[in-house]
Amino acid sequence: MTLNSPSSLSRLGSRRVLPARMPRDQNTNTFRTLGRGVPRTKAMLIREREVNVKTPTGDMRSTLFVPKITTDDQNITFPGVILYSEIYQVTGPVERLGRRLAGEGYVVLAPDVYHEYETGSMGYSDEAGERGNSLKTEKPLASYDSDAVAAAAWLKDAPECNGRLGTFGVCLGGGIALRAALAVPEVRAAACFFATDIHNRGLGAPDPSVPHSIDSLDNLNGEALMVWGNQDTHIPYDDLTTIRNAFRAANANFQWLEFNAAHAFMRDNGGKGRYDPAISHLAWEAAFELFQRRLTFGLVDDGLTRIRAD
């Protein structure tokens, strides 16, 4: 089969036929196509650095991912997204989530969720898993809320951010992303993937004065996207029904997606054989639809008034 253009893609059954990579001129940063150089005058590049966010319980080390458009206009700003990690903190797969989000035009702040106890990635190991699961119930529930308030304030003050805020989280971070949307009224959108510790009220040290997320969903001012794998052994399927019914009882604004996937299906290190790139692609598309509508364009509920059914 002959492919007539660099963008051509043909599907033969389950096989994809891709064109050979075009030759690149290293000196002019152009691709040579049919003998004609096409300069790459504008691009979305990613810059990242470590920052410290002041919280009531100490400095919260965070990784910042900032989109940068190569243009003379230095006044371009972007919505901000707080990216919450798994129990292992900001690992390589979480950094790649941050870069993916930033590449779509969001300033991304990825904090150490256990900053009072650990700094940076804890790595993927049985010992790290045990440590992470222990810390999630040792850390006071109120501290997750004060961290969210501090992170949101930091992002809003960042010169690259236009003040519109969202959250994004996976596993432990999925539950924290939802909780942050409850604690920070300015959060317009929360994308929560295979969120743990909601159904069983398992986040944080017990404190009767601080309600769990499932008991305070009426505090959700923005919109939540809840994405699940129905093969997830961390969250029994019957408990998904409990969570969904709680959203409905609170008359909260939410989307609900279930895929035939395991827990952590977006973790691309392949360590436990759960990564599903096709389903991850669909999940990303749902998240970007939410963020574009709520954050990039602000087309819906721009004043953060609750949307209720008649």
Which characteristics define this entry?
about 30% helix, about 300 residues, 13 strands, globular, alpha/beta, disordered N terminus, 3-stranded antiparallel β-sheet
End-to-end separation: 56 Å
Classify the beta-strand content into a percent band.
25-35%
Unreliably modeled segments: 1-40, 304-310
* Rg measurement, Å: 21 Å
Average pLDDT over all residues: 85
The level of helicity is 25-40%
**How would you classify the helix and strand content by structural class?**
alpha/beta
How many β-strand runs?
13
Question: DSSP helix count?
Answer: 6
Net shape: globular
Brief synopsis:
The chain is an alpha/beta fold. It has helices at residues 92-103, 126-138, 141-157, 172-183, 237-249, 277-296, and strands spanning 10-12, 15-17, 24-25, 30-33, 36-39, 44-55, 58-69, 78-84, 107-111, 161-170, 187-193, 223-229, 254-259. The strands form 3 sheets. It has an 8-stranded mixed sheet with strand order 6-7-9-8-10-11-12-13, with helices on both faces.
